[in-house]
Design a protein that fits this description.
alpha+beta, globular, 8 strands, five-stranded mixed sheet
């Protein structure tokens, strides 16, 4: 199905790109590394328009950061599959962990492994070029080198031209990219997969009492309880579902909750083969629209 973009939609996309000029310094660093921006059109070429349920493991310091992302274009790196041992220990990938967020969001990118996506200052995520197939990577590098004006973008028109060039490049190869990330002769089992989403809503949350490691050094039990209560209140304020505290019958008398069963009950997976069978059978996007 061919993507149809109206003139008004094109103007809206270009206006969004113009707004990103205030982040130009950071965006230029992504361009210099030959990263690929996950724009709305590129996402639709590859994946279509999908609303998905995923999971993210964070720590007490990430609560406010995630709260600010709710309902925005800022993208979050999440997972639909994670190794059972990591889920069981609620281990964060780049954080100390302790909190599992059940996330609902618009799919931006899906890969069976870690594609090391990184955000720019506006919150949009970019994927690294080296995670793409060799053939596409070489073509991208060759074509990019033919556009000297992209080496130092400081004009709105040049930025728009850059996005249009990337857009056209990916559109022509969207099917190939999608099939590449569904070929498990290439992608072997890892500790987690990466599913990038934006426009997120936070559903259920599971957290454990020892999330704040320094609490054991506090002078009084009352201080510890107060901090834990504040964490619980903050989590409840951003959740549209239920917040579960697992403390092993300690401070608040709650029982232990098995994180693996908790995640699997909500659609997440801790078995790589099950992940492949569930999410990578279809090689065509469900919809192609903006």
């Amino acid at each position: 199905m061919k993507l149809q973009v109206t003139e008004s939609q094109l103007k809206l996309i270009e206006q969004q790109q113009l707004n990103e000029l205030k982040w130009m310094g950071n965006i230029q660093s992504h361009i210099d590394r030959l990263d690929i921006p996950l724009t709305s059109s590129i996402v639709n070429y590859i994946w279509g328009k999908q609303r998905v349920t995923t999971f993210h493991i964070g720590d007490v310091h990430s609560i406010n950061k995630i709260a600010k992302m709710v309902g925005t274009r800022k993208a979050l790196s999440t997972f639909r599959y994670m190794n059972k041992k990591m889920v069981n220990g609620i281990k964060g990938i780049q954080t100390s962990g302790g909190i599992i967020f059940q996330i609902e969001g618009d799919l931006q990118f899906e890969a069976p492994g870690d594609i090391m996506s990184t955000p720019d200052d506006s919150g949009r995520r970019w994927i690294t070029l080296h995670t793409l197939p060799d053939k596409i990577r070489n073509e991208y590098y060759k074509e990019f080198k033919g556009h000297n004006e992209f080496n130092n973008i400081n004009e709105p028109k040049t930025l728009i031209n850059y996005y249009r060039w990337v857009d056209n490049f990916i559109e022509e190869r969207a099917k190939e990219i999608r099939e590449y990330y569904s070929d498990f002769k290439i992608h072997r089992e890892g500790l987690w997969n990466e599913t990038v989403v934006n426009n997120i809503q936070i559903k259920d949350i599971l957290w454990k009492e020892d999330i704040v490691g320094f609490l054991n050094t506090w002078e009084t039990e009352e201080q510890k309880i107060k901090v834990l209560e504040e964490v619980g209140i903050k989590l409840s304020s951003i959740s549209t579902g239920t917040v579960y505290l697992s403390d092993g019958g300690s401070t608040f008398g709650f029982r232990d909750i098995d994180p693996v069963r908790w995640v699997e009950k909500r659609g997440g997976l801790t078995d790589f083969k099950k992940y492949v069978n569930k999410f990578h059978k279809e090689k065509e996007p469900k919809t192609i629209s903006i």
